[in-house]
Amino acid sequence: MRTLVTFALPIAAIAALSACNTVPEVPPAPVVVEVEPIQTCAPVSSLQRVVVPAETKIMYAITMIDNPPYDPIERKEKQVRIVKPAEILYVDTEGKQVLDICEDVEIGATGPGVGETIPADDG
Hints:
The protein is α+β, with helices and mostly antiparallel strands. The chain has one helix and six strands, in the order H-E-E-E-E-E-E. The chain is elongated and about 130 Å long.
């Protein structure tokens, strides 16, 4: 039993002394690297504006009114309906579409929407 106390006492003393002598580790200061801002957007002056025309479909509306004892009154009207609206795009010198433009410009669908009618050119 005496040998157990002889070994345990110095080990406990060393553990107690070493616990008191610990110094908190100071984290290294963060490294700040200043980088020049990089322009990721494209200026409008370097792009070409492309207007894709609307896709249309010609339809005819026929109205018939009974008119006894005479022939019925019939009216046929030509209508041009929008199937896909016109679209505004911007392309670069390689012909690729550019979406990230520095200035605030109109991009995408424009004009009458799908299903709307536009005046028919009866010429």
